[in-house]
Amino acid sequence: MTEHGKTPVTVLGLGAMGTALVEALLAAGHPVTAWNRTPGRAEGVAAKGASVASTVSEALAANKIVIACLLDYDSVHEVLDPVAAGLEGRQLINLTNGTPGQAREMSAWAGQLGAEYLDGGIMAIPPMIGTPAAFIFYSGSGSVLAHARSALDTFGGVKYLGVDPGLAPLHDIALLSGMYGNFMGVIQAFALVGSAGVKAREFAPLLRDWLAAMGGFLDRAAEQIDDGDYVTGVVSNIAMQAGAYPNLLKAAEEQGISAELLTPLQPLMDKRVAAGHGAEDLIGVIELLKK
Ligand code: NDP
């Protein structure tokens, strides 16, 4: 800690996200040592008060807390492997997007080098960092979280999920899966009406209201999954939906657009119905995803 009680932090990576993290730390008064592979990208944060390290070793030596925010886990290894001995005694917080398996591997690797490890999944885009709209999932070392807490609080909400380092990326990827599924439907809907010359701006309010009206699906699905009961109170059974779904694919074809974003669901629905589950809700398809 500095005389002002602000924890000093090293940040590796000054892309769009790393820069936003450094700016949030600086704005809150935390001393920051920053490093980036391409040195020119450090000029902006240097002007705002960050110390710029010219080598990774120098950046590791500067502070106990080291935050990595690079493109992917391979790039984190590429940066840290050659200077791995410098991680001893450090608290490595990896906010790079990755998978649960990659986080567990990196945690074990860091542990062998004498470093404590905390993984993080950033649920925000760079302009949201430092605002109440941002939050970050964390998992791994609770003592790293406690020591770095005042610094991490500057980024946004802190959601700690437990000691298994894979839990943060697991939740991160799960939210992104939901988001991309939503995006796929939205893209398809705009393409479909667009094929008939309907302006996207004109259609958007209809789509927004419809998605909001269907939002109740999520909580209902959660109850059905936890209770293992996909049948009670069903009003739109999967046999009916599997019968109507081909119209989504056929309409796309008629309009001369691809249905490839939609096609994977049809065989899963058909399989569930064929297995005798036609009276269930759509969410019963989740059983087919379990390998
Ligand atoms: P950018 O593409 O803006 O920056 C990538 C960073 O990684 C740069 O600092 C780049 O250095 C560095 N880098 C890439 N490859 C290597 C390498 N082999 N060795 C050393 N450094 C390397 O990405 P962001 O900053 O936006 O994203 C960083 C992380 O944050 C990613 O994992 C991303 O998924 C995650 N994230 C990003 C969000 C966003 O909206 N931007 C949202 C949530 C998470 P150089 O400048 O030298 O190229």
From TrEMBL:
NADPH-dependent reductive aminase-like C-terminal domain mapped to chain residues: 164-291
Superkingdom classification of source: Bacteria
Location of the 6-phosphogluconate dehydrogenase NADP-binding domain: 9-157
Record's keyword terms, sorted: Oxidoreductase
Keyword 4Fe-4S applies: no
Keyword Transmembrane helix on entry: no
One Pfam short name: RedAm-like_C
Segments passing through the bilayer: none
GO molecular function, one term: NADP binding
PANTHER family in UniProt: CYTOKINE-LIKE NUCLEAR FACTOR N-PAC, OXIDOREDUCTASE GLYR1-RELATED
Family, as annotated: Belongs to the HIBADH-related family.
Designated name of the protein: 6-phosphogluconate dehydrogenase
